[in-house]
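Q: Could you fold this chain for me?
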Amino acid sequence: MFNPVLFLYELLLRREVARTPIPVNHLLLVIDDTDLLADTGGMERLRSFTRWCHSLKIPLVSVYISVIQDRLDSSLFERVYAHLKEELPRLLSKEKTSLVLYADDSEPEAGYAKIIGAGDTEQKLYISLGFTGRRELTKAVQEIAKKVQRGELEPEAVDEKLIESELIFKSEPDLVIRSGATRLTDFLIWQSVYTEFYFTDVNWAQFRKIDLLRAIRDFKMRERRFGR
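A: Sure. Below is the predicted structure, expressed as structure tokens.
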């Protein structure tokens, strides 16, 4: 139902945000696995969120789907993954967006699965299902240790740049939006050392464009120090 008050408020936010360039090249959204399983239109909202970000000229959007392992039955992970694998390419089929989906079921031998959707475009969407920053960093260290063991690398040569070269996700997020909770996430734990965090109590089922605009407005008012 059309709400004139919300329409005017969104228009006001859009004008306020558009006054100066948006200094966000990489935005990370954090939601829960149940946000997409529940019959609340979560997948369609994810498509809308991606479109909103790209309309704001944010080229890279990452989405971390938090998986709570201690309440996860043996089939739920596979259901979520299969749902994402089937629905995301369909939802984004009309968008000029490159899609990369990572999934991790926390079995050491499973590693991660990667699905690449649309071709190489300026607009990119990375989605991680349960593939935590700790796992990513652990795998990077393991790969470096293998090179040292094979004699291809001296231990003294291991530095930050080498570790970063072994990480799956290369880009550092400028802004993290956590929907419906205040829990931190360890996704991109290495890359987000200077990232700004925005927590909203708005659940994903009720998340609107004005909530994204609020987060962007808040981010633009902050003074980033990058550790200084």
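A (continued): Residues 133-149 form the longest helix (17 residues).
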